[in-house]
Write a structure and sequence with these properties.
Blueprint (H helix, E strand, L loop, with lengths): L12 E7 L4 E9 L2 E10 L15 H18 L7 E5 L1 H5 L5 H10 L3 E3 L2 H13 L9 E6 L4 E7 L2 E8 L3 H8 L7 H15 L3 H4 L6 E5 H13 L7 E2 H14 L18 H15 L3 E4 L4 H13 L4 H12 L4 H18 L8 H13 L11 H11 L7 H12 L15 H20 L12 E5 L2 E5 L4 H4 L1 H16 L3 E4 L1
Parallel strand pairs: 1-4, 4-5, 6-9, 9-11, 13-14
Antiparallel strand pairs: 1-2, 2-3, 6-7, 7-8, 10-11, 12-13
Helix pairs in contact: 1-3, 4-11, 5-10, 6-10, 8-10, 9-10, 13-14, 13-17, 14-16, 14-17, 15-16, 16-17, 17-19
């Protein structure tokens, strides 16, 4: 059950865009003899998290600032095809609740789709980026990525993470909570560090000293702190416990962020610096870190390396699906039969139904493999159990939108076909998911007997909402149970506005 190669030509240039809570980043790479070479970068301190209002919408100034930055990035990315660009939103984008209005406007400004990823998926991609900047070795690494709205902690060896957590604290959030007026004193610094340690407490033992040999920091906060402590002679390289303590004292001595005069601190980083120092101090104290080296690579580079992997037909999502099949004891033979039939049907109707994007093929393949996932919970309504698992599980490589699509396909693959089950999906995807779901339903129906050939015995043709199945002469007469199933399926689809004819 391997995925088919992409029909897209391999691009020479690839790009990743990271819509973080503090800054938006774009990095562009070139494939040179199958190796990735970074050729351009763009960063803008949008401060998306600082513009999040109590009702979880964005303030007008932040909205305009974000779209202006994305428009600039879009100009640079305009000539690249969608499959050569990957753009993701992180903590603040996960929180925005405006009916998808900002996401739609952001995608229009950028000119490419934007995915919203969960915290643990963000952690995995951060580790992938950082790991490519480090020398090879067997030691276990602790990677700490302090962003604007969240902090990711990862343990791993080589290119493989083993433990991942995302905590709801970052330099923007901590600054708004404890240093909103710019004042810095020992009292609010201590309270900020304590709040960070409280946030870390549930995961402290997982990441504490003794479980790793090397600590690595990534992203803006870590790089800004390293620049300051090195420029002021408090550290020769990286961040040390002593240098971090001296930095806190210097901030407290200044009394206000506007009065801080530290070599190496940029005006752009200054507004959220105190909050970032507090989070880093909490991490050092909770995990007993003595020294942390700092990586130049982070989430956006992780996106690029994974994008290159997809182009070269190495997709972690395929491994994730295989792992879930094993974990939930999915019957591989049955999944393979359903997948083969679904693929054959899609090949016949892909162009007529607008399902010719390679991602449509992948989603149908994966849904076919996982459609019986819920049987491990209960045979009754197993499609509902499977959908719940897929919507809520930690699935490395999958975005939240992709998990929602998989969950929807599994949810509606049997019994009554209710379009209302797809209501939570983004509007542009609903029609395509509906059609994929019908192909999955027919494929699962044809293998209810859990045996027989992988090759479908029928041909399929479609025209808008009309579907026609054509079987070999006498085949339906020889398979009365299947004919009865198809007749009932026609009734299910009719309730959703589709016409299914068969002969």
């Amino acid at each position: 059950m391997t995925q088919p190669p992409s029909p897209h030509p391999q691009p020479e240039t690839v790009a990743a865009v990271d819509l973080g809570s503090n800054s938006f980043h774009m990095v562009i790479g070139r494939l040179d003899n199958r190796q990735l070479v970074i050729v351009d970068r763009l960063r803008d301190a949008v401060r998306l998290g600082g513009g999040l209002l109590p009702d979880k919408s964005l303030g007008d100034d932040t909205w305009e600032r974000a779209l202006d930055t994305l428009s600039k990035m879009g100009q640079r990315l305009r000539e690249l095809p969608h499959h050569a660009v990957r753009a993701v939103g992180t903590n603040t984008m996960r929180q925005i609740n405006d009916g998808g209005a900002f996401l739609k406007a952001a995608e229009h400004a950028l000119g490419h789709p934007i995915e919203i990823i969960g915290g643990r998926e963000e952690a995995r991609l951060v580790y992938l980026g950082v790991a490519h900047s480090l020398a090879g070795g067997d030691e276990t690494r602790l990677v700490v990525d302090i962003g604007g709205g969240s902090t990711e902690l990862i343990l791993g060896r080589g290119l493989e993470p083993s433990e991942r957590e995302s905590l709801f604290m970052g330099c923007v959030g901590m600054t708004r909570r404890f240093f909103a007026d710019g004042a810095i004193g020992s009292d609010n610094m201590d309270r900020a560090v304590l709040a960070g340690r409280v946030e870390l407490r549930p995961v402290r033992r997982m990441f504490e000293s003794g479980r790793w040999q090397t600590a690595v920091g990534s992203s803006g906060t870590a790089k800004a702190i390293e620049r300051v402590v090195v420029a002021n002679g408090w550290s020769d390289e990286g961040i040390t416990k002593v240098s971090l303590k001296k930095l806190r004292r210097a901030l407290i001595s200044a009394g206000n962020i506007d009065a801080v005069a530290l070599e190496g601190l940029s005006d752009e980083r200054r507004p959220v610096f105190a909050g970032g120092v507090a989070v880093m101090s909490a991490v050092f104290k909770s995990l007993d870190i003595g020294h942390m080296q700092v990586s130049d690579l982070a989430l956006r580079e992780g996106l690029l390396y994974e994008l290159v992997g997809h182009i070269q037909h190495v997709d972690i999502r395929d491994s994730t699906v295989q792992a879930m099949m094993q974990r939930f004891a999915v019957a591989k033979d049955q999944a393979s039969r359903v997948e083969s039939t679904a693929r054959a049907l899609l090949k016949q109707v892909g162009s007529d139904w607008g399902l010719d994007d390679p991602e449509h093929t992948l989603m149908l393949n994966w849904a076919s493999r996982l459609h019986e996932l819920g049987l491990v919970v209960s045979h009754g309504s197993f499609h509902k159990h499977g959908a719940y698992i897929l919507a809520n599980a930690d699935m490395p490589g999958f975005t939240r939108q992709q998990q929602a699509v998989l969950a929807a396909l599994v949810r509606v693959h049997r019994r009554k076909y209710s379009v209302s089950e797809l209501a939570g999906l983004p509007a542009p995807t609903v029609d395509r998911v509906q059609r994929l779901a019908i192909l999955l339903r027919i494929s699962a129906l044809m293998h209810r007997g859990r045996g027989g050939s992988h090759k479908p015995p029928m041909k399929i043709s479609v025209q808008d909402m009309e579907i026609r199945l054509q079987f070999p002469d006498q085949w339906l007469f020889e398979h009365p149970l299947t004919e009865a199933e198809i007749a009932r399926e026609a009734e299910y689809l009719a309730a959703a506005g589709f016409t299914l004819q068969y002969a």
